[in-house]
Amino acid sequence: MVGWQEWCVLPKLHIPAIKAKIDTGAKTSVLHAWDVVPFHRHGEQFVHFIVHPLQRNDEVIVRCSAKVVDKRSIMSSIGHKQMRYVIRTPLLLGEMSWEIEVTLTNRDAMTFRMLLGRDALKGHSIVDPQKSLCQGKLSKGELIQLYIPE
Prior knowledge:
Layout: E1 5-10, E2 15-23, E3 29-32, E4 34-41, E5 44-51, E6 62-75, E7 81-93, E8 96-105, E9 114-117, H1 118-121, H2 140-147
Parallel strand pairs: 2-9, 3-8
Antiparallel strand pairs: 1-2, 3-9, 4-5, 5-6, 6-7, 7-8
């Protein structure tokens, strides 16, 4: 069971906590990413990108790299089409773990740094839109310790 928002972990991207909006209206999941730079390694396409994983906080920065699995035209929530890189990464949600596809785009204007769409949730979760943070809550202090360990 998941609520309309949940804390997630993206271990392969070294993101120990990111609050995602559970969005069954969105087919594809999306992660806030900026300074997305494609590169090739051993004949395969990858991307470097930067994530600000915490809402309303531009000081915490996570530098990521991932293999590109696709590049797709995605319709945004305001009806604009945009070509986005697609990566595949493990997701931890509470005690559950599975691999998801995520598109990368700048979400600075949006409240949530990540959306979990219905493709990522299919077969893994039941959504109760009246609930929130069913898989656990994190305090500001816990978040700071995750990103700035002593």
